[in-house]
């Protein structure tokens, strides 16, 4: 009997405030879709960091003939064979070094011509202008400073460069975009909470006579408030379900079909369906609990029975 009463009261409340209930559903759906998108974006950035930071290398560029006098370490001209052997030996002695790759001036020239073949500078570069280098793969990419402090300014070494610096700006931009998404998310959730509170307040006001009668016949506050809370929770759950559909559709449209980002940006390993599915239970849980909490707060303040 009580379950039937709850269900009938929920149905009455939803019908009386159909427009506002629809607004709650849309607001919750947009907020939670943004929340899920922000979580997935954060996961994507972390995945990209782990993938690319594991592949970046430290490059020790050695002096060539054209560097004579450009830096104190290149004052005597191009690096000598003895200096190259000593640099290689010292690199291999470091415990943080996993592997060392040698690239000759000719190899560096070919790579430059391949990467910048459309650049006007490519035609003016000659092999003797390209520096020989050792590309060092570290066991821990964050230990770049160890290599830099050990070899920067050393005779025969032109410079020591960390490829992470190239990626740093990219990841700073991505992190900034994720942070902006969280800020917008907080704003949207606040709007959704206020809308839910106002909807529950209007619903409680329109049924103040019924709730007054229920109080007179001995109904508890919890029994009176429960239909209002369940109305809000139901609307929130519907909104969360819509948000889940939006997340699944967004993943399919952006990655697999439509934009096909995976084909257009093959260097990025985008999150799979499993990552999206893992977020959905959290979206549904928030969609159920957030409106229920907002309704509970509204009823404590506005429902005077």
Explain what you see.
This protein is an alpha+beta fold and 305 residues long. It is 68% helix and 8% strand. It has helices spanning 2-16, 18-55, 81-93, 105-115, 144-151, 164-206, 208-216, 221-256, 261-264, 273-302, and strands at 58-62, 97-103, 133-138, 157-162. The longest helix has 43 residues, at 164-206. It is elongated, with a radius of gyration of 32 Å. The two termini are 23 Å apart. 27% of the residues are buried. The model has no long low-confidence stretch (mean pLDDT 79).
Write the layout of secondary structure elements.
Elements: H1 2-16, H2 18-55, E1 58-62, H3 81-93, E2 97-103, H4 105-115, E3 133-138, H5 144-151, E4 157-162, H6 164-206, H7 208-216, H8 221-256, H9 261-264, H10 273-302
Antiparallel strand pairs: 1-3, 1-4, 2-3
Helix pairs in contact: 1-8, 2-6, 2-8, 2-10, 6-8, 6-10, 8-10
Major β-sheet profile: 4 strands, antiparallel
- The strand order across the widest sheet is 2-3-1-4
Overall shape: elongated
- Assembly of the depicted chains: single chain
Put simply, the count of helices is 10
Give the proportion of residues in helices: 55-70%
- Spatial gap, N to C terminus: 23 Å
Secondary structure tally: strands: 4
SSE arrangement, N to C: HHEHEHEHEHHHHH
The fraction of residues in strands falls at: 5-15%
Overall mean pLDDT score? 79
Structural class call reads: alpha+beta
Poorly predicted parts? none
Radius of gyration: 32 Å
């Amino acid at each position: 009997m009580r379950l039937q009463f709850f269900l009938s009261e929920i149905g009455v409340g939803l019908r009386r405030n159909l427009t506002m209930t629809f607004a709650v559903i849309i607001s919750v759906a947009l907020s939670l879709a943004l929340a899920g998108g922000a979580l997935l974006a954060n996961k994507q950035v972390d995945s990209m960091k782990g993938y690319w930071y594991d592949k970046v290398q430290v490059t020790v560029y050695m002096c060539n003939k054209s560097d004579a006098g450009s830096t104190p370490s290149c004052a005597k001209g191009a690096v000598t064979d003895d200096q190259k052997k000593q640099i290689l030996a010292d690199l291999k002695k470091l415990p943080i070094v996993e592997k060392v790759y040698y690239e000759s001036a000719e190899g560096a020239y070919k790579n430059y011509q391949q990467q910048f073949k459309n650049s006007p500078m490519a035609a003016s570069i000659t092999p003797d202008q390209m520096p020989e280098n050792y590309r060092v793969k570290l066991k821990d990419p964050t230990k770049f400073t160890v290599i830099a402090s050990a070899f920067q300014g050393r005779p025969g070494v032109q410079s020591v460069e960390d490829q992470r610096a190239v990626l740093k700006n990219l990841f700073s931009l991505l992190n900034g975009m994720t942070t902006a998404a969280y800020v917008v998310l907080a704003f949207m959730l606040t709007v959704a909470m206020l809308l839910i509170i106002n909807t529950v307040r209007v619903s409680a006001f329109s049924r103040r006579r019924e709730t007054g009668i229920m109080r007179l016949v001995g109904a508890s506050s919890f029994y009176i408030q429960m239909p209002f809370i369940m109305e809000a929770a139901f609307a929130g759950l519907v909104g969360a379900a819509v948000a889940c559909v939006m997340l699944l559709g967004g993943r399919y449209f952006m990655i697999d079909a439509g934009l096909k980002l995976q084909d257009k940006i093959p260097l990025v390993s985008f999150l799979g369906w499993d990552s999206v599915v893992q977020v959905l239970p959290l979206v549904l849980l928030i969609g159920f609990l957030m409106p229920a909490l907002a309704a509970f707060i509204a009823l404590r303040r506005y429902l005077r029975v």
